[in-house]
Amino acid sequence: MKTRLPAFDVLVDMARNDPEGLETLRRSLTDAVISGAASDVTRRRLEGLQFQVDMERARAPSPLAATLRISEMMCRSLADLHRSMVAPETLDVDQPAANDMSGGNVISFQRS
Predict the structure, then answer these.
(1) 98 inside domain
(2) Number of domains the chain is built from
(3) Which residues lie below 8 Å from residue 3, measured CB to CB, with a gap of 6+?
(4) DSSP character string of 22-88
């Protein structure tokens, strides 16, 4: 089910006179997009991304600062994606891949 976005002038009026209503609308539209994800994996990733966006908004001292922080997040993500496609060997990897077993210890079991 698609939810129609109100006209721009209505959104401006809500921002000025009913910020709580605008926030409720934003959350409901965001939740609708996330719940409509094609798979559970995509839905969980979108929920994680929305959590990061919400935390940046909460930490920012002003709406403009929040917008700039979120824009920086998107630019970093796009740059990482570009780098992974053009030169994957240049990526900084903080943790090994889940299937990397080079650092594991092998424990021998004695048969009885």
Answers:
(1) no
(2) 1
(3) 28, 29, 32
(4) HHHHHHHHHHHHHHT-SSHHHHHHHHHHHHHHHHHHHHSSSHHHHHHHHHHHHHHHHHHHHHHHH-G
- Determine the average pLDDT of the residues in 59-84: 94
Q: What's the domain range around 31?
A: 8-87
Is residue 23 in a domain?
yes
For all residues of the chain together, what is the average pLDDT? 88
Is residue 95 included in any domain, yes or no? no
Alpha carbons 70 and 77: distance in angstroms, whole number = 11
pLDDT value for 109: 80
Look at the pTM and tell me if it is higher than 0.70: no
Residue 17 domain-assigned (yes or no):
yes
Q: What pLDDT does 102 receive?
A: 58
Class of residue 56 by CB neighbours under 10 A (exposed 0-12, middle 13-18, buried 19+)? middle
Cβ-Cβ contacts under 8 Å for 59 (sequence gap 6 or more):
69
